[in-house]
Specification:
single chain, Immunoglobulin-like, 5 domains, 6-stranded mixed β-sheet, about 50% strand
């Protein structure tokens, strides 16, 4: 029997720990122990000891044997040699193959990368870690799964990809061949122009938002907004299928046709045209009365005029003491009128409102007094009923007033009697031609009013004795809304 023997496996896998044990009948007699591979010395020990391959490689495959120098008798040594044993180191797993699903991804889509390899059945429990790379950059390192999912790719991510599989001990690793992945861009289509508020119905003074969107299209998209009669209003480049451009304060001049374009490097695609109309909110309207005389009398027809100049179309409502009298529309804007046949009961406050769908705006209230007694004074030939030559009525005939002593107190009484506003001037009647006819009498020489009387007839008067029409008196009063 051989004095020296060798004990080792005939087969191992990459990364395995392989122990080669050479021993003698009496290990204590071994003076030197030598291990050989393929005829070459690989290690020497001064006593019996094993040789260990910590992480086997394919290059470790070969023929192994041992030699030993041992004590034979006193000072005599002999050399012993074992038989040869062949070790085969097998591949633990083949180089992985990288695949992408889908294989031809489009921009913005989710891609899954798979690093596929296989282990022998007897090493199926070996844990592998995976790393993924693109053009020299690490996407994921030490990943416990052979799949890298949820990867969103864009055109600029096109390039060469590969993966690496490695044992948890890092003793064995394999890298896949490089695979080229081309990320395709989807051209924009279905470009749509919308507005907020919807339908292009803008309101003056408020914000109008122009919204440009695409049904399809990936990558960076340049959105441009245009008005038909102008150059570009603005542009934005962003990675989305929708962009907005705001006009912070809309003016009437912003009305017109608008469209947008979208371009993701294949050329601009245009939307349809959206016609923007600017609705002007109504302002507070003004209510005025138009009557045959300065004082409202029963039986007369008075015209209530409500006017707001800018907005259209407008619906006007007329009120007496907050009770609706009627409504009138003005399709093209401007004012509207309501006619009222007066009775004494029509005295009171009147108002109107204007509404073009943006909410009604109300006028100031205006008072109207309907009197049963017609005035016995009038102002002739002036620009309005509250200015002109002063005439009074006595016993059914009308005559003039001499300007002797005529002052602002007298004018104040005339203004009050006519329902006009405050007194302003005491002009000569000659300013309001033509002059009174010669046949028309002068009825008052001097009016001695203290300014508080309700009518000129209540003032003390001096009968005429020496006055011609060249000395006729005039009066100017403020115009109140109820008299014009």
């Amino acid at each position: 029997a051989d004095w020296l023997s060798i004990d080792m496996p005939h087969k191992a896998y990459e990364g395995d720990r392989v122990v080669i044990q050479c021993s003698g009948e009496k290990n204590k007699n071994i003076r030197r122990l030598m291990y050989y591979k393929d005829g070459s010395l690989i290690s020497t020990y001064d006593s019996a000891s094993s040789y260990t391959i910590s992480h086997a490689r394919a290059s470790d495959s070969g023929s192994y044997y041992c030699k030993a120098d041992r004590k034979y008798f006193l000072f005599v040594d002999v050399t012993e040699e074992t038989r040869s044993v062949w070790l085969t180191v097998q591949e633990l797993f083949p180089a992985p193959r990288l695949t992408a699903r889908p294989s031809q991804p489009t921009e913005g889509s989710s891609v899954t990368l798979s690093c596929d390899t296989s282990l022998p059945s007897e090493r199926s429990r070996t844990q592998l870690h995976y790393s993924f790379f693109r053009d020299g950059h690490t996407l994921k390192s030490g990943w416990s799964s052979a799949e890298l999912w949820g990867l969103t790719l864009w055109t600029e991510d096109s390039g060469y990809y590969w993966c690496e599989a490695m044992t948890a001990s890092h003793s064995v690793s394999r890298r896949s061949p490089r695979s080229h992945i081309h990320v395709q861009r989807i051209r924009v289509s279905g470009v749509l122009m919308e507005t907020q508020p919807p339908g292009g119905q803008a309101i003056e003074g408020e914000t109008l938002v122009l919204i440009c969107s695409v049904a399809e299209g990936t990558g960076d998209t340049t959105f441009s907004w245009h008005r038909e009669d102008m150059e570009s209003l603005g542009r934005k480049t962003q990675r989305s299928q929708r962009a907005e451009l705001g006009i912070p304060v809309v003016r009437e001049s912003h009305a017109g046709g608008y469209y947008c374009t979208a371009d993701n490097s294949y050329g601009p695609v245009q939307s349809g045209v959206v016609n923007v109309t600017v609705r002007i909110p109504v302002s507070h309207p003004v209510l005025r009365f138009r009557a045959p005389s300065t004082l409202a009398l029963p039986g007369e027809v008075v015209e209530l005029s409500c006017e707001e100049q800018r907005a259209s179309p407008i619906l006007y409502r007329f009120y007496h003491e907050n009770v609706t009298l009627g409504t009138t529309s003005a399709p093209s804007g401007g004012g509207a009128s309501f006619f009222l046949s007066l009775t004494v009961k029509h005295s009171g406050n009147y108002s109107c409102d204007a509404d073009n769908g943006q909410g009604p705006q109300h006028s100031e209230a205006v008072a109207l007094k309907v009197t049963e007694t017609p005035p016995k004074v009038r102002l002739m030939n002036g620009p309005h009923p509250c200015e002109g030559r002063v005439e009074v009525e006595q016993e059914g005939r009308w005559g003039t007033v001499c300007d002797d002593g005529w002052d602002i107190k007298d004018v104040a009484v005339v203004c009050r009697e006519l329902g006009c506003g405050a007194p302003r001037h005491t002009p000569a009647a000659m300013l309001y031609p033509p002059a009174a006819e010669e046949a028309q009498p002068v009825l008052i020489q001097v009016a001695l009013c203290n300014g508080t009387e309700a009518a000129l007839a209540e003032c003390e008067q001096v009968e005429p004795f020496d006055c011609g029409h060249v000395e006729d008196a005039g009066a100017v009063c403020e115009v109140s809304p109820s008299t014009w």
